[in-house]
Amino acid sequence: VAAARRSLIVVSNRGPVGYARDEDGSRVARRGGGGLVTALRSLVAHHDVTWIASAITDEDRVVAAEAGGAVEEAVRDGSPCRLRLVPHDPAAYDRFYNVIANPTIWFLQHYLWDLVRNPNVDPALLHAWDDGYVPVNRAFAGAVLEELAERPDATVFFHDYHLYLAPRLVRDARPEAVLAHFVHIPWPDAELWHVLPEEMRRAVHEGLLANDVVGFHTERWARNFRRSAEDLLGEGALGRTHVTAHPISVDAAEFAHLAETEAVLQRERELVARRPERIVLRVDRTDPSKNVVRGFLAFELYLEAHPEAHGGVVMLALLDPSRQDIPEYAEYLAAIEREVRRVNARFETDGWTPIDLRVEDDFAASVAAYKQFDVLLVNAVFDGLNLVAKEAPLVNERGGVLVLSENAGAHEELAEWVVSINPFDLGGQADAIHRALAMAEGERERRLEAIRERVRSHDLEWWIGVQLSDFDAAAARRRAAATAG
Amino acid sequence: VAAARRSLIVVSNRGPVGYARDEDGSRVARRGGGGLVTALRSLVAHHDVTWIASAITDEDRVVAAEAGGAVEEAVRDGSPCRLRLVPHDPAAYDRFYNVIANPTIWFLQHYLWDLVRNPNVDPALLHAWDDGYVPVNRAFAGAVLEELAERPDATVFFHDYHLYLAPRLVRDARPEAVLAHFVHIPWPDAELWHVLPEEMRRAVHEGLLANDVVGFHTERWARNFRRSAEDLLGEGALGRTHVTAHPISVDAAEFAHLAETEAVLQRERELVARRPERIVLRVDRTDPSKNVVRGFLAFELYLEAHPEAHGGVVMLALLDPSRQDIPEYAEYLAAIEREVRRVNARFETDGWTPIDLRVEDDFAASVAAYKQFDVLLVNAVFDGLNLVAKEAPLVNERGGVLVLSENAGAHEELAEWVVSINPFDLGGQADAIHRALAMAEGERERRLEAIRERVRSHDLEWWIGVQLSDFDAAAARRRAAATAG
C-alpha cells in the first residue's frame, strides 16, 4: 500500500545514529537497531523523516556543532533520514536521564516506588527537574521549532516519557502544527501521579495534552490517562486531544529471517547440545518491573510441588543487565543472583541445575532460545506492552506456551491464547508453569498458531498505518476547525 | 432532633465492650473509647442497637459461649446496647487480622507496598485468606443473619476493611435486608487492586456491592471505588448500590470538656514549663502511612534553611506505637528513632533539642499538645480522613496553623484554611512549616476559626444524621422496588 509521501519529524531521546571516534581518530557512525528504530523503519523508508534526538556522546556533540542543524544520514537498513542531534549540557542531561526519566518517572509509571521510603521530592530532585528535565525538553522543543520552520506541514511525532514537556512548548509557538506523542510505557492512575508535586504532575499532563494525538499500547493505559488528565486538570482537560490505543508490534518476516542466520543457528546448536527435557524461558532486561525475582520464587514453588520435574525442567533466564549506574537496578540484579544461588543450592543434583542464569546482552542467544522454549514466562509487575511476548512465539519450534502477566500490555491482545498470571501471585505462577508444561500438544500448537496469526496480521506495518491514519484525522480536524474559524 | 427510634445492627471487628478476668478471677468488662465507639455513641444512645464484634480475648469467648447470642450491655457512656461477640478459631483470627487485614489490605489501600518485593501472594497468604479472612467473615455473616431473624427490619451497618466479604453472604440469604457499609480508609484505584489475584479482588468488590449503601469519607475515595468496581466487575457493576461520601467527624463539646480535665491540665502545665518558643506538633500512630520519617527529613530541611529557628522551634512528635507485632511496623518505628537521633545529633545545642520524640500512648498529653501547638503537621502518605486534623484545632489556644497532606481525606473539607502539602515533597513541607510559623496572627486566627466552624457544623451528630438519611433512602428504594415488583 503505497501511501502518499509525508513529511515527518520524529522526536525521541535516543536516535537511530550516534557517533564515536575510532582508534585512528576518524569518525564512526553507529547505526542502532533498538526498539524504536526498528518500529519506525518503514516510516523512514517510505517518507521524508527528520529525526531529532539527543547528542549523547562527545562526538555527537561535535557533529551537532558542525551541522548547526540536521545532517543527511542513513538508518541501519540504508534508508535516508535527516538527523538532528540536540546538544545538552552534560550535567543537565545526566539529571534529566538518571534522576528524572529513570528512575523517577519510569518507576512511577510502573508502580515500582516503595512509597513509605521513596521517592523523596527533595532539593536534589527539584534541581534535576528545573535544571535537567525542563532544559532538555526546552532544547528539544527549540530543535522541533527550527525544523518546523523549514517544513511547516510536517507532522511531529514525539516518543515516550523523556519528552513530556516539549509538546506544550512547541504548541505555544505553533498553534496550527499537527503534534502526536506515543507513550511506550504504562500509564498509572491519577492517585499515583500525586507522588509528584502539583506543579510537576500538571506540567506532565499539560505537556502531553498539547498534542493532537496521544497514543498508548492498550485501552487500559489510555483510559488511565483520560482519567488522570481530568482528575488533575479538571473536566474537559482532554480538549481536542485524541487519546488512542494501538499496540506496537514486530516485523514477522525479520524474525523468520533472523531465526535462520548463522549467529542464531550457532547459538541454537549450543543450546540444543545441553538442553534439558523442557525449558521454561524468560528473556528480559534486569529491570525491577520485569519481576525476575518473583519468577524464581514461583519456579521454586513449582519444583516443590512437582518432584517429577526435577532433573528434566530448567528455567533458562537470559537477562540483559540494565541501567546498572542506578542503585535500585544494581540492587535488583544482586537480588536476582542471590535468589538463583538459593534456589539452585536447594534443588540441584549431579547433572541438573534448575535455574540457568545468563546475565549478558546476546540477542542471537535470545532468538535461539525463542526457538527452543517449551514455556515462555513473562510475569512483569507492569509493562507497557512487552515485545518478547510477540517475538518469541513467531519463531518457536516446540509448541511453546506463553505464560503472560495480566499487567503486561500485550495481555490485552493475546489473553485468550495464553496462560494468564497475576504477577504477585507466586502460587498462581507455579500452577501456570505446570499447566503450560502439561498442556496437550494439539492445544499448545493451536494457541501458538493463534498468537502468530494475531502478530502477523497486526505487525509493525499495521501499527505504522494506524499511526498515520491518526495523524491524518488530526490534520483533517485542524483543517475543519480552521475553515469553520 | 429526636428522630424515630430505629433498630440497627452495627458490625465491626472490634466492639465497644470486651471482657477479661481480674486477679481474683471475676469477670471485668472493658468499655473502650476507640474511634468507632465514639463515632457511634449517639446512635447507641438514641436507637436500639445490636453490636456484633469479634470475641477477641479468652473471656470474650467465654461470654459468647455462655450467651449463645447477644448479651445486654452498656457502652462507655452508659447507654444500653445489645452486644453479640462472634467467636473465631484463634489461629483463623490471627491469619484474618495479622496477615490479611493488616498489613495486606491496609497496605494496599494506603499505597504502602513496595511492589518490586511485596506482597508475595504465596501459599501462606492464600491460606490466610481461605482459612482466615473467609471464615471470619462467614462467622460475622452468620451472626448477622441470626440477629436479622429476630429483627427483620433492622438496618445492618458494616464497618471497614475487615468485613468486605460478609455483606454478600448476608445478602444471599436476605435479599430484602437494608445493608450499609462504611469504609474508613482510602480507596485506591483499580490498578492497585491488581495486586490481589482476580478471585480475591472480585470477592472484595462483590462483597461491598451487596450493600445498598457504601460510604466513604471523601468524593475522591468514592470515585475510586466506583471506577474500580466497574473496571474489575464490568460496566453496571454498581447496580443498585449507592456510593456516598460523608466525612466522619468529632464531638466538639467533648473536646472542649476534655481540654479542661485535670489530666490534660496537668500535662499542659508540664508542657508549658518546658515549652520552646514555637512548637511544630505531630500526633500519630507509628504507622508507615503517617509518613513520620519524611516529616523529620522536612524539618531537617527547614532547620538547614532557617538558622534563626535554631534554639526556638521544636518538633514535638507524640507517637502511639502501633502494631509492633507486624515486621513492617517494627521496622518503621526503628527508622523513626534512627532519623530523630540523626537530626538531633546534627543540630542540637546546649538547651535545645530540635525533635522531642515521645513514643507512648498518652491521650491526655496529646490533648495538652493540641492546645499548645503553633503548627500542626499532618503529612500522611494516604489517610482515609485523619481525625487529628479536626480534633486539634478545636482546642488550640495559640492560633495554631494546620499543615495538611493533600492525600488526607480531611483535605477535601479543610483545604482552603490549611497550608497544603504534598507528602512526598520534603522541600514543600519545609517551606510550609516556615510559612505557617511566619503567618500573621490575624490570618492564623481567621483560618483556625474557620476550621473550627466547619468541624462544629459538621460534627458527629451531623455525620450520624446523614448516615441515617442514606439508610432511609435505601429503605425507600427497596419498598418502591417491592411495590413495583
Structure in words:
The structure is a homodimer of 485-residue chains. Chain A contains 19 helices and 16 strands. The two termini of chain A are 35 Å apart. In chain A, the strands form three sheets. An eight-stranded mixed β-sheet of chain A has the order 5-6-4-1-7-8-9-10. Chain A has a six-stranded parallel β-sheet with strand order 13-12-11-14-15-16, with helices on both faces. In chain A, strands 2-3 form a two-stranded antiparallel sheet. Chain A has 485 residues and is of the alpha/beta class. At the A-B interface, helix 7, helix 12 and helix 17 of A face helix 7, helix 12 and helix 17 of B.
Topology:
The structure is a homodimer of 485-residue chains.
Chain A: E1 7-11, E2 17-21, E3 27-31, H1 35-39, H2 41-46, E4 48-54, H3 58-67, E5 70-74, E6 80-86, H4 90-109, H5 123-150, E7 155-159, H6 166-173, E8 178-182, H7 190-193, H8 198-208, E9 213-216, H9 219-233, E10 242-245, H10 252-258, H11 262-274, E11 278-285, H12 292-305, E12 313-320, H13 327-347, E13 355-359, H14 363-372, E14 375-378, H15 388-395, E15 401-405, H16 411-414, E16 419-421, H17 426-438, H18 441-457, H19 460-484
Parallel strand pairs in A: 1-4, 1-7, 4-6, 7-8, 8-9, 9-10, 11-12, 11-14, 12-13, 14-15, 15-16
Antiparallel strand pairs in A: 2-3, 5-6
Tell me which protein chains meet in the greatest interface and how many residues each side has: A-B, 42 and 42 residues
Beta content of chain A: 15-25%
Helix/strand-derived class of chain A? alpha/beta
User: What composes the largest sheet of chain A?
Assistant: 8 strands, mixed
Mean pLDDT of chain A: 96
Assembly type of the chains comes to homodimer
Task: State the separation between the terminal residues of chain A, measured CA to CA.
Answer: 35 Å
Unreliable runs of chain A = none
Count of alpha/pi helices of chain A: 19
**3D shape of chain A:** globular
What Rg of chain A is obtained from the alpha carbons, in whole angstroms? Answer: 23 Å
Helix content of chain A: 40-55%
Strands side by side in the biggest sheet of chain A: 5-6-4-1-7-8-9-10
What's the count of strands of chain A? 16
